[in-house]
Recover the amino acids of this structure.
């Protein structure tokens, strides 16, 4: 008995759209464009594994955000299971943000020059 295969690329695209609706609790920019998602894997069987981080290890919203990601991604058609790993290595830096994320940060008055932070 073989498992039904899913459209991996469609699922990845829809997951990214979902991740763009989830915002960092401290910075009003979505977690995808902020660069908090380090890895997004979708198996042909619809199993999803995500490595994500937060801008600060001491964030009290870690578990809430992790659960929000898992719950929303699980609603994407074709997703059979979701595992969200919180990782701290490598640490998040402003360079991980997409151009859209950097523009959003700049519009908020948040410095996007890496030398400001290091």
């Amino acid at each position: 008995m073989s498992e039904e295969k899913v459209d991996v690329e469609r699922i990845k695209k829809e997951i990214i759209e979902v991740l763009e609706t989830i915002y960092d609790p401290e910075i009003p920019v979505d977690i995808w464009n902020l660069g908090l998602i380090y890895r997004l894997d979708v198996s042909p069987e619809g199993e999803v594994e995500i490595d994500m981080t937060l801008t600060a290890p001491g964030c009290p919203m870690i578990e809430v955000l992790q659960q929000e990601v898992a719950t929303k991604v699980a609603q994407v058609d074709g997703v059979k299971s979701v595992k969200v790993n919180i990782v701290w290595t490598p640490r998040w830096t402003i360079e991980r943000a997409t151009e859209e994320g950097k523009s959003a940060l700049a519009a908020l008055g948040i410095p996007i020059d890496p030398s400001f932070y290091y």
